[in-house]
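Below is how a single chain appears once it has passed through the pipeline. First comes the sequence as given, then the structure the pipeline wrote out for it. We keep one example in the README because the format questions we get most often are answered faster by looking than by reading.
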Amino acid sequence: MQPDGPYRYTHMLGGSPVGKAWAAVDGQGRLVTVAVLDATVAATPGWREAFAGTANSLAQAPGGAPFTYADFSAAAPWVAYPAEVGPAPEKLFRALGVDYQPVPSAAAPASGPSQPVSGVPQSVSGPPAPTSGPPESVSGPPQPVSGPPQPVSGGPQSVSGPPQPVPGGHQPVSGAPFPGQSTPTSATPQPQWHGPVSPAPLQLPTSGPVSGAPQGPVSGAPTSPVSGAGGDEFGLDPFTAPVRRIQPSARPKRRTGLWVGVAALALVAAVGAGAAVWALTGDDDPEPPLTAPTGVESSGSVPNPTEVNPGIKPWAQVAPYSPEERALAIAAPSLVFVEAVFTGFVREAKSNVPLSATPVTFKRRCSGFVANPDGHVVTNGQCVQPSAEVARERALYTLGRILIEQKKLSADELDEYVRSKMGATTFTGDQPDEAPATQVFTQFNIARGDLTASPAVPAQLVHVLAADGGNLALLKVAQSDLPTAEVDPAASPVPGAALLLIGYQTGDSDFRAATYTVESKQVQVSSTGKQGTVEVARVNEDLGIYSHGGIAIDDQGRVVGVIDNDRAVNGGANRAVVSVSAVTGLLAEKGVENEIADADRAYRSGLDAFFAGRSGDAIAQFNTVAETSPTNLVAQAYRQNAIDRSRLEQESSDSSNLVPILLAGLGGALVVGLIGAAVLVLRRRSTY
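Resulting structure:
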């Protein structure tokens, strides 16, 4: 049975103990290969996460297999790859450590001549079988033959040699009832002759009657016996005379010219009818030219998809054309990758003597979102301004790793080294009474760690809320015209509510120079409570360690909370959602309004048109967004999707217009042909 999903599956490519690989076509006519994890396997703890993690790892690895669509939360999780990347589903299953068996190609049919069936024909119940072969003479007195007339298989066969006379009296014709017989008796069928029959010229009988009728169907009416002395005046049998008594009439002359005229007229009618239909169904409103937006390099009329890569494809992370895709598409462009850099010295608390001659630098990474198009960003407070204890612990771990590289400390001693120094050290700036130096950098769309130059954009720390007061921070980025998220000030998620978490995450093992992209996850509110003095909603799943500072949105794409560490559970997973009241309070305290710009309104209008199927309107709106808000690469990706869909719709419309044209042409040809046939019939009748 084919799996469920947004594709038209064509055939299976292979299978494994945990899932199958399929070939399919998406809604835009592109070929994809889909790896589907069996629902029973996905229900086993660990398999769903392993399937999703392995797919993401392969997609992020250099030379790996990037996927275009995926639904890891379905009952049977699946991930779709472009057909041109090769056997990506096979790589995925083998990466999971299971055996994979491709579907073998169908065996070619055996060729060669057909073989005869051995054995002899067997008699079956039912009516007697027809007989064939030369007629046989009948000896003895005339005997009536009962039973209905029997058909003879095949056409009349010529008999080798002349007919033989019948000894005795005349016999009735074979297959016809004898006159006066009332009660039929069963007749025994003659065996069929399977050998070749030697043709011979038909000869006149010398004496005696014919022993049987010619092979062929026999009428059911009784017939009288054949007289041996009968004949015409010449003494010959009229049915065997070699000269025709009725000469056939001569064939009429062929009217080739008339037929040619009818065919030409039918062709003209077909072409004329097709042209008329084409003229009536022609497109009076051609599609506008598809031009690339300003600032996007392209060798053709549309941007190259590889040049427009926002790092997130909403249609691949949730169900395509669903409310979740639209909500994710609205909010995703506002996500910001935040990296804070802290530099200072670890000193002995009593003597202020540095433990290292060189300063110690560590970094913290998290997510944020644009709250105002002029560059105001809301993020996690502990990420950009950790407490003194947290900063000291991170600095000691960084210093311990340096000592391990210098062979002054073993890896097994690192945790003990940090514990022993926590109560006896401080982390300061260049001077004991100075705070460590802090720098904050932001990136949009696809981000890379340890990046301080362009495309990284520096940001200033405006204000921070305490960990118990909301744990939020407000940044001012040195860039404007940014895509903005809309906050719902009245939002208050309750247990059971469905939310969509959005934040940055990476699948790279080396987090320092890793590539970070926007990810999403559908979650459900499990409970509500307080974290410090602020209301929080706790959700059932965690998006990842770098998602704090990210957002939780509703099905309209509005912000209903900010992701934070849940201090009520061990490990502090990012499963707490801080209430939007803390966000609005932070913005109001610094005089920042949460408002969207004209480019954001145009983007939302373009999405409305795209999901309503109005590709032309969507392209026009996305063009405006590309001009006024170039940071919004998601808009350019949807613009490319609208262009592709419009092209497919145009091709489909052209092919559908061909059908009435052909039908009209065939109809015209049929009418002309019927008229010509009627004329021919009337002319032929007039000649008789």
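The two ends are 68 Å apart (CA to CA).

See the next section for the split statistics.
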